[in-house]
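Listing S7. Sequence submitted for prediction.
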Amino acid sequence: MSSNAYDNGLWTRRYHPAPDSPVRLVCLPHAGGSASFYFPVSRSLSPAVDVLAVQYPGRQDRRHEPLVPDIQTLAQLVADELSGWLDRPLAFFGHSMGASVAFEVARILRRDRGIELAHLFVSGRRAPSRFRDERVHQESDEGLIAEMRKLAGTAGSILGDEEMLRMIMPAIRNDYRAAETYRYEPGPPLECPVTSFVGDADPKVTLDEARAWAEHTTGDFEFEAFSGGHFYLAAHQAAILDRIRGELGVGVAAV
């Protein structure tokens, strides 16, 4: 990995190492999210799957680091970090903004290293080719908080804690800006299987926008809608993890 302001070994969290697993799942967080969002995923999939959760700069133990202002730069930095984790097949799971990052990292790994993913799981995000003119990042802090409450992605206790809000607001605004200013640059489709998950009442993505991920791979494509909004995952975690195990061919984890 090249030396730069972000090169500090803090990019990945391997909460439950699974050295004998046949596949590694890299999980990428949503806007304002952190690696710890995927701790339950790591716990549930280990030891069948070796889970890596990505920690973006500007939050939690990286809160004093410079924020990454755009998806393309963030994807390149993540791809650089993953150069040390290529000893087994890679699959990606990205929710919301994380889905866009996962897609761009997949493109970089194939372009620069000839690596095709074992599987790409995208969640709560429209396909890259589907554009929306969104400008939530230009709202006041109150507007951003209102958006977070609408999506129910941040615990109410945090939304009511002024000190905590001041701490996380720069990262949230940065991530919204990165996600909303992301523009897909046409190129060859992926060849790996892609599975798109979405909540059927998600205000950020329609079912058709989520199905359009099929346009971005020549591999198998699966689509599944769950009841719920943008963070439908909380109510359907077991079903989603079962789908991931099935698609990765690792069966049901031991209890």
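Caption to Listing S7: primary sequence and predicted structure tokens for the chain studied. The first strand starts at residue 12 and ends at 13. The chain has one domain: 12-248.
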